Structure formats: C-alpha cells, structure tokens
Amino acid sequence: MSSEAPSREGDGPDENDLPVSRPAWPVTALSTVAQGGVLWVLVAGVLAWRPGPRRRAAGHGLVAGAAGMALGHAVKAVVRRRRPPAQRLPARRALPEQPKSSAFPSTHATTAAAFTVAAGLSAPAAGVAIAPLAAAVCYSRLRTRAHWPTDVYGGAALGAAVGGWVHRRFARGRQSTQDS
User: Fold this and answer.
1) Which of 39, 120, 122, 134 is deepest in the core (most CB within 10 A)?
2) Residues facing residue 19 across a β-bridge
3) Vertex 107, ends 104 and 108: CA angle to 5°?
4) Closest to 128 (Cα-Cα) out of 117, 114, 141
5) How far is CA 57 from CA 88, 114, 128, 129, 161, in A?
6) 108 has which bridge partners?
7) Residue 56: how many CB atoms within 10 A of its CB?
8) What is the pLDDT confidence band of residue 99, given thresholds at 50, 70 and 90?
9) Residue 57 has pLDDT above 80, yes or no
10) Cβ-based neighbour number of residue 51 at 10 Å
C-alpha cells in the first residue's frame, strides 16, 4: 500500500509506513518502562551484578543516560516541536500516559543511545547484548506515534554523541590515575 493511500482510523499504515492500529502489548510496555530512564537503571543493575568490566559499563551507561536525558530535555525546551497529530489513533491511545512535552528530540531515544554507547564502549559484549533493546525502545516511540521519525533519529544521534563523550571522559580519567 503506498503512503498516498487513504487509511481509515485504526487500519493500514500511515505516511511513515507504520501501522496505526494498537501495538502489541510488549511495545507499549517497553515504551512505558523506558520512561524516565527506569529501564536503563534496571539494565545497569543486571550489568553491575558482578565486578569487572560490565560493572564499569553499568556506571558509564548510567552517567551517559542521565546526561543524555538532561540534554534532550534542554533541547526540547528550545526546539518546541509539536508531536504527531495522532491522539485519536489506537497506536497512541495504547500509551498509559499521553506525552505532552515537545517532540524533538525523543528523550527515550537519547537516553537509550547514550546508555548503550557508553556501556558498549566500556564492555563491547554488553553493548552488543543491549543494542537490540535500545533499538526496540526507539521503535516503540515511532510505533505508538509519540514521535516523528526525525525526533527518534535526532535523539539517537544526540545520545550516541553523549555516550561517546562520557566514555572518553572516563577513559581519560582512568589513564591519568594510572599515570600517577
């Protein structure tokens, strides 16, 4: 079906070729648990269960996630982009809490990317394991019509930059401690 084809409410894809019907409950649940970074605190807890590189990755991920979320909210305050007009679509109504803040960037995507990049640079195996979860969080924001695709892409790019920056800061701090 082309993106030009008209669709009835709750039926068929929208202009971004995503279904407008109610998403499966795991998509909605993932979007909900990622609210406020809760998901990444849980992931960090799993990573930190045992000492070693994964514990360090958990700490780096939490710092990056918090910094990414704060930066994302600051950018939202400046950009003030409207969210997609989807309040009546089953996809958006599936969310228990309707988002009211500015759309750009998606702070869900920013936080997910920041956490994943920082953790992944600290412990590559952990990054590989959690990257699909971060991608699923990003998809959930598109699927529930909470964001435009560019909100999610921009948030992921911003988060990746923050995650890389946080990793470099920690690596520089570790190196100066070893040099002493």
Assistant:
1) 134
2) 13
3) 125
4) 117
5) 41, 12, 12, 12, 16
6) none
7) 18
8) confident
9) yes
10) 8
- Residues listed for the chain: 180
DSSP state of 48: T
3-class DSSP assignment, residue 22: coil
Percentage of the chain exceeding pLDDT 90: 56
pLDDT in tens, 114-146: 999 999 999 999 999 999 999 999 999 988 888
CA distance linking residue 13 with residue 6, whole number of Å? 9
Helix axes 38-47, 124-143, angle to 10 degrees: 160
DSSP 74-118: HHHHHH-PPPPS-TTSHHHHTSSS---S--SS-HHHHHHHHHHHH
Cβ count near 111 (within 10 Å): 32
- 13 three-class SS: strand
Both tokens assigned to 14: 């929208």
Entry pTM = 0.83
Contact 96, 128 (CB under 8 A): no
Which has the closest alpha carbon to 161: 35, 34, 67, 58? 67
Tokens for 171, please give them. 């690596």
